[in-house]
Write a structure and sequence with these properties.
The chain is mainly β. It has strands at about 5-15, 35, 55, 65-70, 95-100, 105-115, 120-130, 145-150, 155-165, 175-180, 190-195.
Protein backbone atom coordinates (compact mmCIF):
# COMPACT_ATOMS: atom_id res chain seq x y z
CA UNK A 1 0.00 0.00 0.00
CA UNK A 2 1.33 3.43 -0.89
CA UNK A 3 1.84 6.16 1.64
CA UNK A 4 -1.54 7.50 2.58
CA UNK A 5 -0.84 11.07 3.61
CA UNK A 6 1.66 13.83 3.99
CA UNK A 7 3.81 13.71 7.06
CA UNK A 8 4.97 16.46 9.35
CA UNK A 9 7.89 16.81 11.74
CA UNK A 10 8.10 19.70 14.06
CA UNK A 11 9.58 21.21 17.14
CA UNK A 12 8.17 24.36 18.59
CA UNK A 13 9.00 27.30 20.76
CA UNK A 14 7.40 30.34 22.29
CA UNK A 15 9.28 33.60 22.66
CA UNK A 16 8.46 36.96 24.24
CA UNK A 17 8.90 40.08 22.16
CA UNK A 18 8.65 43.74 22.92
CA UNK A 19 7.01 44.67 19.61
CA UNK A 20 4.37 43.28 17.26
CA UNK A 21 5.80 42.57 13.79
CA UNK A 22 6.01 39.89 11.12
CA UNK A 23 7.95 36.69 11.86
CA UNK A 24 11.55 37.78 12.18
CA UNK A 25 14.84 36.22 11.15
CA UNK A 26 17.79 36.13 13.52
CA UNK A 27 17.87 36.02 17.28
CA UNK A 28 14.86 37.12 19.30
CA UNK A 29 16.26 36.08 22.66
CA UNK A 30 15.92 32.90 24.63
CA UNK A 31 12.66 30.98 24.22
CA UNK A 32 10.31 31.07 27.18
CA UNK A 33 9.03 27.63 26.19
CA UNK A 34 11.22 25.40 24.02
CA UNK A 35 9.72 22.03 23.09
CA UNK A 36 12.50 19.91 21.63
CA UNK A 37 11.17 16.40 22.38
CA UNK A 38 14.54 15.56 23.96
CA UNK A 39 17.34 13.42 22.53
CA UNK A 40 18.70 9.89 22.67
CA UNK A 41 18.51 6.59 20.80
CA UNK A 42 15.48 5.55 18.74
CA UNK A 43 12.68 5.41 19.56
CA UNK A 44 11.92 8.35 21.79
CA UNK A 45 9.25 8.16 24.48
CA UNK A 46 5.59 8.91 23.73
CA UNK A 47 4.31 12.39 24.49
CA UNK A 48 2.00 12.87 27.45
CA UNK A 49 -1.59 12.00 26.57
CA UNK A 50 -2.86 15.59 26.78
CA UNK A 51 -0.42 16.68 24.04
CA UNK A 52 -1.95 14.73 21.14
CA UNK A 53 -4.99 12.61 20.32
CA UNK A 54 -2.87 10.62 17.87
CA UNK A 55 -1.63 7.18 18.89
CA UNK A 56 2.07 6.59 19.51
CA UNK A 57 4.03 3.87 17.72
CA UNK A 58 7.69 3.10 18.31
CA UNK A 59 8.44 2.18 14.69
CA UNK A 60 10.10 4.33 12.08
CA UNK A 61 7.07 4.79 9.80
CA UNK A 62 3.75 5.56 11.55
CA UNK A 63 0.48 4.82 9.77
CA UNK A 64 -2.42 7.24 9.33
CA UNK A 65 -3.47 8.85 12.61
CA UNK A 66 -0.28 7.75 14.38
CA UNK A 67 2.93 9.49 15.40
CA UNK A 68 6.36 8.57 16.64
CA UNK A 69 9.28 10.37 18.27
CA UNK A 70 12.56 9.70 16.44
CA UNK A 71 16.03 11.09 15.83
CA UNK A 72 16.00 9.70 12.26
CA UNK A 73 13.73 8.02 9.76
CA UNK A 74 14.46 6.14 6.55
CA UNK A 75 12.98 4.00 3.78
CA UNK A 76 9.37 4.62 4.80
CA UNK A 77 6.59 3.28 2.60
CA UNK A 78 8.80 2.03 -0.21
CA UNK A 79 11.10 5.06 -0.06
CA UNK A 80 8.27 7.49 -0.82
CA UNK A 81 9.33 9.63 2.18
CA UNK A 82 12.58 11.50 2.66
CA UNK A 83 15.25 9.90 4.80
CA UNK A 84 16.19 12.18 7.69
CA UNK A 85 19.26 11.65 9.84
CA UNK A 86 18.82 14.62 12.17
CA UNK A 87 16.32 17.08 13.58
CA UNK A 88 16.30 20.72 12.40
CA UNK A 89 19.14 21.62 14.82
CA UNK A 90 21.61 19.17 13.30
CA UNK A 91 21.84 17.20 16.56
CA UNK A 92 22.15 13.58 15.39
CA UNK A 93 20.42 12.32 18.56
CA UNK A 94 17.82 15.11 18.78
CA UNK A 95 14.24 13.87 18.58
CA UNK A 96 11.46 15.18 16.36
CA UNK A 97 7.77 14.31 16.27
CA UNK A 98 6.85 12.45 13.07
CA UNK A 99 3.12 12.62 12.32
CA UNK A 100 1.22 10.70 9.67
CA UNK A 101 -2.02 12.66 9.54
CA UNK A 102 -5.43 11.08 10.01
CA UNK A 103 -7.93 10.90 7.17
CA UNK A 104 -10.02 13.72 8.65
CA UNK A 105 -8.58 17.17 9.43
CA UNK A 106 -7.70 17.27 13.11
CA UNK A 107 -5.50 18.79 15.79
CA UNK A 108 -2.33 16.77 16.23
CA UNK A 109 -0.53 18.87 18.85
CA UNK A 110 -1.84 20.65 21.95
CA UNK A 111 0.00 22.33 24.80
CA UNK A 112 -0.98 24.65 27.64
CA UNK A 113 1.51 27.36 28.56
CA UNK A 114 1.13 28.88 32.01
CA UNK A 115 2.54 31.93 33.72
CA UNK A 116 2.87 34.29 30.76
CA UNK A 117 2.74 38.04 31.30
CA UNK A 118 -0.57 39.62 30.31
CA UNK A 119 -0.54 42.51 27.83
CA UNK A 120 2.65 41.13 26.30
CA UNK A 121 3.55 40.06 22.77
CA UNK A 122 4.91 36.58 22.07
CA UNK A 123 5.93 34.55 19.05
CA UNK A 124 4.69 30.97 18.61
CA UNK A 125 6.64 29.10 15.96
CA UNK A 126 7.45 25.56 14.89
CA UNK A 127 10.03 23.96 12.61
CA UNK A 128 8.21 21.80 10.05
CA UNK A 129 9.15 19.57 7.15
CA UNK A 130 6.95 17.72 4.67
CA UNK A 131 8.71 14.37 4.25
CA UNK A 132 6.77 12.96 1.29
CA UNK A 133 8.65 12.98 -2.00
CA UNK A 134 7.08 15.02 -4.86
CA UNK A 135 6.95 12.01 -7.21
CA UNK A 136 5.04 9.85 -4.70
CA UNK A 137 1.47 8.88 -5.55
CA UNK A 138 2.01 9.71 -9.20
CA UNK A 139 2.87 13.29 -8.24
CA UNK A 140 -0.59 13.80 -6.70
CA UNK A 141 0.27 14.01 -3.01
CA UNK A 142 -1.94 15.87 -0.56
CA UNK A 143 0.06 18.63 1.10
CA UNK A 144 -0.22 19.42 4.81
CA UNK A 145 -1.87 22.74 5.58
CA UNK A 146 -1.50 23.75 9.22
CA UNK A 147 -3.38 26.17 11.43
CA UNK A 148 -1.77 27.42 14.63
CA UNK A 149 -4.34 28.59 17.17
CA UNK A 150 -3.49 30.43 20.36
CA UNK A 151 -6.50 30.15 22.69
CA UNK A 152 -7.56 31.11 26.16
CA UNK A 153 -8.12 28.10 28.42
CA UNK A 154 -11.90 28.48 27.87
CA UNK A 155 -11.40 27.92 24.09
CA UNK A 156 -11.63 31.56 22.99
CA UNK A 157 -9.26 32.02 20.04
CA UNK A 158 -6.76 34.86 20.55
CA UNK A 159 -4.79 34.45 17.33
CA UNK A 160 -4.81 32.18 14.28
CA UNK A 161 -2.07 31.59 11.75
CA UNK A 162 -2.27 29.37 8.66
CA UNK A 163 0.79 28.03 6.86
CA UNK A 164 -0.94 27.41 3.55
CA UNK A 165 0.04 24.21 1.74
CA UNK A 166 3.49 22.97 2.72
CA UNK A 167 5.00 21.69 -0.53
CA UNK A 168 6.72 18.39 -1.16
CA UNK A 169 10.35 19.11 -2.10
CA UNK A 170 13.03 17.07 -3.87
CA UNK A 171 15.41 17.56 -0.93
CA UNK A 172 14.34 17.68 2.72
CA UNK A 173 14.15 21.23 4.07
CA UNK A 174 13.06 22.31 7.55
CA UNK A 175 11.16 25.59 7.58
CA UNK A 176 10.01 27.72 10.49
CA UNK A 177 6.35 28.75 10.56
CA UNK A 178 4.77 30.97 13.17
CA UNK A 179 3.19 34.24 14.20
CA UNK A 180 2.87 36.73 17.00
CA UNK A 181 0.10 37.16 19.53
CA UNK A 182 -0.58 39.45 22.45
CA UNK A 183 -1.98 38.18 25.73
CA UNK A 184 -5.02 40.19 26.84
CA UNK A 185 -5.20 41.82 30.25
CA UNK A 186 -5.68 39.22 32.95
CA UNK A 187 -4.65 36.28 30.71
CA UNK A 188 -1.49 34.44 31.73
CA UNK A 189 -2.33 30.90 30.52
CA UNK A 190 -2.82 30.01 26.84
CA UNK A 191 -3.45 26.86 24.83
CA UNK A 192 -1.33 26.24 21.73
CA UNK A 193 -3.10 24.06 19.14
CA UNK A 194 -1.76 22.89 15.77
CA UNK A 195 -4.31 21.44 13.34
CA UNK A 196 -3.79 19.84 9.94
CA UNK A 197 -6.59 21.08 7.65
CA UNK A 198 -5.94 18.71 4.75
CA UNK A 199 -8.02 15.61 4.18
CA UNK A 200 -6.34 12.22 4.27
CA UNK A 201 -5.25 10.19 1.29
CA UNK A 202 -2.00 9.99 -0.61
Amino acid sequence: MLIKFCTIFFSSFLMMLSIHAQLCQGSLGDPIINTTFGSGPNPGSPLIAATTAYQYVSGDCPGDGFYTVRNSTSSCFGNTWHTLVTDHTGDASGYFMLVNASFQPSAFYLDTVRGLCSNSTYEFAAWVINVILPASCGGNTIQPNLTFNIEKTDGTVLQTYNTGSIPALNAPEWKQYGNFFTTPAGVSDVVLRITNNSVGGC
